[in-house]
From TrEMBL:
It is found in: Cytoplasm. One of its GO terms (molecular function) is protein-L-isoaspartate (D-aspartate) O-methyltransferase activity. The active site is at 60. This is Protein-L-isoaspartate O-methyltransferase. InterPro entries: PCMT. The gene is pcm. Catalyzes the methyl esterification of L-isoaspartyl residues in peptides and proteins that result from spontaneous decomposition of normal L-aspartyl and L-asparaginyl residues. It plays a role in the repair and/or degradation of damaged proteins. CDD domains: AdoMet_MTases. It is an enzyme of class 2 (transferase). The lineage of its organism: Bacteria, Pseudomonadati, Pseudomonadota, Alphaproteobacteria, Acetobacterales.
Amino acid sequence: MPTDANRIRLVLALRSAGITDAAVLGAIESVPRERFVPETFRDQAWEDIALPIGLGQTISQPRVVAMMTEALRVSKRHRVLEIGTGSGYQAAVLARLCRRLYTIERHPALLARAESILKELGFTNIVFRAGDGMQGWPELAPFDRIIVTAAPAEAPKALLDQLSPESGIMVIPMGKTADSQHLWRITRQGDRYDREQLAAVRFVPLLPGVADDSGEESRLPRL
């Protein structure tokens, strides 16, 4: 089980890595990461490492979660779209900071597990959807913020279109290969999209469509 020392050590490591936003650090400290980590890796939950969660997906290392969240510049006024629910950990951090979070996952089995955990933890400002993240959530657009937790070669046009034209921000990893991925912040002003490269990263690829997870629930790692 995690201790206060584990949490404090992680927060100090994140500060040393350049994360300075107190709200982001507070959210990281308050979200019980061990709830989103498979039982086999529970003793590593508060280390700054990525861990497998099943179906070829991972829970991102806290430093990357903190860096992306800080780059997103989220406030309690914002409606945020997350592409790639995964374990639900990034969703939990964001939901502490925004007004409402809409999260899409292409693996229904992962989405069901994440939704169950997040509801057990008392989150009431998250809306879940199994779907093709590359298409976004057009009927609820525009979004003040969009975060993408898998890497396309280029930002999908559908997501750019769904970003608020009034200083909307998207944080997204992009690269044609795993070795060429970088994290980008895209800020929209009307029809103009300003791009800022932030850091080298490595994410699973962003894929189209909805995965066929028939029977996969029973094969996911135990939490």
